[in-house]
Design brief:
Chain B: This is Urea ABC transporter permease. The structure holds two protein chains of two kinds. Helix content of chain A is 75%, strand content 2%. By secondary structure, chain A is mainly alpha-helical. A two-stranded antiparallel sheet of chain A has the order 1-2. The radius of gyration of chain A is 19 Å and the shape is globular. Chain B has a single domain, classed as ABC transporter involved in vitamin B12 uptake, BtuC, CATH 1.10.3470. Chain B has helices at residues 9-29, 33-58, 66-84, 95-99, 115-139, 144-164, 166-169, 193-215, 217-227, 229-234, 239-265, 275-288, 293-309, 318-332, 336-352, 357-360, 365-371, and strands at residues 182-183, 186-187. The chains are: A mainly alpha, B mainly alpha. Chains A and B meet through helix 4, helix 10 and helix 12 of A and helix 5, helix 6, helix 12 and helix 14 of B.
Chain lengths: 293, 375
């Protein structure tokens, strides 16, 4: 064996970065699926809208990059709210149909954005302190990737606080566990679903804003993230801790496989591995046994 | 006559006869080779929509990865046709392989020297893959949206794999065999009526077989497990086996469609594994009516037809229109246009039997639902 340890450690750190990107992309999806059981195929397009919101804020208002994050959140949350009100709320009891309807929404969003902004790529400027590299001892990592890791941690703590330490969170968890019972205790489940969907969409917007700096902004960029996000949620099984564990494992495995093979074949191996894992844990790693729908 | 004529078996067969006879007569009236070729391609889309209808409509298994079987079939046929134009002695290697640095034909290309063996593999490999993948998933009781996501993930895995294996598949450029398919010394010109009739014959026979399958006991069990898999399991049926079989049958039909696609287009690329294309197949079936085989075929004709013929005016906004239309269908007409027809006919038969309501309305909606055999 001729492999030295330093590059392997480096690839593990890189895996952490991949994991944080997938996790931040999947956070919104986790919340929406975990609470309402909605498979939101338009999630990738919400990410794309977040990126375009950041682009617009920067190009037309001159907003600095870090301020674009809350702007993306609000804009995409409102768009999510709109679709929840006009479409999704009629389909909560038909999970397969939400999947299809949101796919229709994603087609419309992609094409709508293409008609408004054109197919040419857009770029989002990042401040100077984010465009460099940071030395981590064994390897250099772009500071943007470190920002994404930090943002992921911040968002997870925020979501954890919201779900487990606030009154609103108690209501969300009550509706998740048993909608009828929660309703009979006076929780307005429809409003909870609505807020959760908007929150999930907003989180996709934040992810989109972060990715706008990482890669170019295109109307089709959503499709780069949607399959991985879904795999994170499906492998994790729904709860937040499941998504965290799943994305960490997927990111590390991807990076580990890429170390031995090329990156596309690593992706293929990863997908096959997930199929095998699901064979033995069909409801995901952390299936929420308390959920009854 | 009481009851809905939509569920009348004789009426359904009459619709079949009218539909297929009119499709079969097209080459007699229309000799433009390019139009015939395009209509034949529509026939392939019809096959794909029908296969989705079988899997999703009858079995309730939403498969977003039908492109796996379709793409495998298409690549298998492309490899067969490519090897037909190679000479075993002087140029055993397709040119893209030598430009990618291969010196020997890869082992899995060898069987494609034989046309029969190649076509057999093009159909068998996707079917066996679906049997394995289906068995893995369904035995673990992965179902509903989870299965849809897994099939989607599998599809995108294949997409990147085909794209990545440049020396073996020519990557993004795809394989474009120089000559049309030659079977038993006869060269099948993709623009000839013969090619049209081949596709038409396959569409006709496979649809009729699928309908007979729907009406058989097997079809009844599969429909039952669509409604309530737990209850079917308690009745002692092996649910996973039935799900795997209907999934594999549907994959086989998609593989046939893939083979025909390469015959007609003489080109195959990773686009056949594209996620959007696979979901478009689901849109065809959803719009036409997933519970109805012929409805799904008509859905494919309608959508692809309007894309080709209205496409010029709405080129920019086509996906916007398609997405909007699809959302409306899912929201208001979950059973598609065939479901709409069923509703209208039910209304008519109800008004004609209004004089004797207890008799005419004897069937509860649930009973009528259980009887639904799919046109």
């Amino acid at each position: 064996m001729d492999y030295s340890w330093a590059p392997l450690m480096g690839s593990l750190v890189l895996g952490l970065s991949i994991a944080s990107i997938w996790l931040v992309a999947a956070l919104g999806l986790t919340i929406i699926y975990g609470t309402a059981g909605v498979i939101n195929m338009a999630h990738g397009e919400f990410i794309m809208l977040g990126a375009y919101a950041a682009y617009c804020a920067q190009a037309y208002l001159g907003t600095p990059f870090l301020l674009c994050l809350p702007i993306s959140f609000v804009v995409v949350a409102l768009i999510g709210l709109f679709f929840e009100r006009v479409l999704i709320r009629y389909l909560y009891h038909r999970p397969l149909d939400t999947l299809l309807a949101t796919w229709g929404v994603s087609l419309m969003l992609t094409q709508g954005v293409r008609m408004i902004f054109g197919s040419s790529p857009k770029y989002v400027q990042v401040p100077e302190f984010l465009s460099g590299n940071v030395s981590l001892g064994i390897m250099n990592m772009s500071s943007l990737r470190i920002l994404i890791v930090l943002m992921t941690v911040v968002l997870i703590v925020g979501i954890w606080y919201l779900f487990y330490r606030t009154y609103f969170g108690i209501k969300i968890r009550a509706v998740t566990q048993n909608r009828e019972m929660a309703a009979s205790f006076g929780v307005n489940s429809e409003r909870i679903y609505m807020c959760t969907f908007a929150l999930g969409a907003g989180l996709a917007g934040v992810a989109g804003c972060l990715f706008s700096a990482l890669a170019i902004v295109l109307p089709t960029m959503g499709s780069n993230y949607v399959v991985e996000s879904f795999l994170v949620v499906v492998t994790g099984g729904g709860p937040l801790v499941g998504s965290i564990a799943a994305s960490a494992m997927m990111g590390e495995f991807k990076s580990f496989f890429s170390y031995f093979f090329n990156s596309t074949f690593a992706q293929f191996l990863l997908f096959v591995l997930i199929v095998i894992v699901l064979r033995f844990r069909p409801n995901g790693l952390f299936a929420n046994t308390a959920v009854r729908r | 006559m009481n009851g809905n004529i939509y569920h009348d078996k004789r009426a359904q067969w009459v619709v079949y006869i009218v539909f297929f006879v009119s499709l079969g007569l097209i080459p007699v009236m229309q000799a433009d080779p390019f139009l015939l070729n395009q209509l034949a391609v529509f026939g392939i889309y019809g096959l794909l929509a029908m296969s989705i209808s079988l899997c999703w409509g009858t079995g309730g298994i939403l498969n977003l990865g039908q492109g796996i079987a379709f793409g495998m079939g298409a690549y298998g046929m492309a490899m067969t046709m490519q090897m037909q134009s190679q000479d075993p002695e002087f140029s055993p290697l397709p040119s893209f392989m030598s430009t990618n640095g291969l010196e020997q034909l890869p082992w899995f290309w060898e069987p494609f020297w034989s046309t029969g063996g190649g076509i057999f593999l093009a159909l068998a490999v996707p079917t066996i893959f679906s049997l394995i993948f289906g068995a893995l998933m369904f035995q673990a009781r992965v179902s509903g949206p989870f299965f849809a996501i897994m099939s989607l993930a599998m599809l995108s895995a294949f997409y990147i794999l085909v794209l990545d294996m440049q020396p073996y598949t020519n990557g993004a450029n795809g394989i474009s065999p120089r000559m049309p398919l030659e079977v038993a010394g006869y060269s099948l010109d993709p623009y000839s009526p013969a090619a049209y009739w081949l596709i038409f014959g396959l569409l006709f026979s496979l649809t009729v077989l699928a309908k007979l399958l729907n009406q058989s006991k097997f079809g009844q069990i599969v429909r039952a497990l669509r409604e309530d898999p737990e209850r079917v399991r308690f009745l002692g049926y092996n649910v996973a086996l039935y799900e795997t079989l209907i999934y594999a049958i549907s994959a086989f039909i998609a593989a046939v469609a893939g083979c025909c696609f390469t015959i007609l287009i003489q080109y195959v690329s990773p686009d056949q594994f594209d996620v959007v294309f696979s979901i478009t197949m689901v849109i065809w079936a959803a719009v036409g009516g997933r519970l109805s085989l012929i409805g799904a075929i008509i859905g494919a004709f309608l959508i692809q037809g309007s894309e080709s013929y209205l496409g010029d005016q709405f080129l920019n906004s086509w996906h916007l229109i398609l997405g909007f239309f699809f959302v409306i269908i899912v929201r208001f007409l979950p059973n598609g246009l065939a479901g709409l027809l069923e509703m209208l006919l039910a209304k008519r038969s109800r008004s004609s039997t209004e004089e004797s309501p207890p008799h005419g309305r004897a069937k509860s909606p649930a009973a009528a639902n259980a009887e639904k055999a799919g046109v």
